[in-house]
TrEMBL record:
Domain WH1: 1-115
Domain of life: Eukaryota
Entry-linked Pfam families: WH1
Species whose genome carries this gene: Fistulina hepatica ATCC 64428
Stated name of the protein: WH1 domain-containing protein
């Protein structure tokens, strides 16, 4: 698997990572290290797979990180931004092209079958760690709310205070609302 990408990193702590650009960009490669290709198997907790970032011009390796954890988690945060967890921090790949990012993820899925030796496991996107806050409620952002579609609004009740300061409500409204508003 390969794609043009930039490497970002953030602390493992906290539910909202503060991503920082590492300054590294180039061709991202996922592969098996040649020095380990002839061995019968990696020792427990390690393997010979790694991510390698190569300079587009010189071909020189700029960054390499072996996949050493026993539970390798890789997921798509955004179509162009993929995340995985290292021992001391989380890493993000910011892909230049969404199609390359999708192909990279597809290759990751295929390669995960070769990691069935129990030393490394691949967690597909729908089994990834939930991004729901500890309270159990999702954060709602204004950009997530769309305008209502035509004829989709149903008026349930009306509550108002008239010019004389008297509460006005729709007929048949639950009296609990009146008590809640009176407090």
């Amino acid at each position: 698997a390969e794609a043009t990408a930039r490497v970002y990193h953030a602390s493992l702590k906290g539910s909202r990572p503060n991503w920082a650009f590492s300054g590294l960009k180039g061709r991202l490669l996922l592969g098996k290290d040649a020095v380990d290709a002839g061995t019968s198997g990696p020792p427990p907790g390690t393997n010979s797979w790694s991510f390698r970032l190569v300079d587009n011009t010189s071909g020189r390796t700029l960054w390499r990180i072996p996949i050493l954890t026993t539970k390798f988690v890789y997921h798509v945060d955004r179509p162009f931004f993929h995340i995985f967890y290292g021992r001391t921090r989380r890493f993000g790949f910011r892909f230049d092209d969404d199609n390359e990012a999708a192909s990279f993820y597809k290759e990751m899925t295929k390669l995960s079958n070769s990691w069935a030796d129990g030393y490394v496991s691949f967690i597909p996107i729908d089994e990834r760690v939930s991004q729901t806050p500890a309270s159990g409620r999702k954060h709602l952002k204004t950009k997530m709310i769309s305008l209502p579609t035509e004829a989709s609004f149903v008026h349930v009740a009306h509550i108002a205070v008239n010019a004389n300061g008297v509460e006005e409500t729709s007929p048949g409204m639950d009296p609990l609302w009146n008590r809640a508003l009176a407090n």
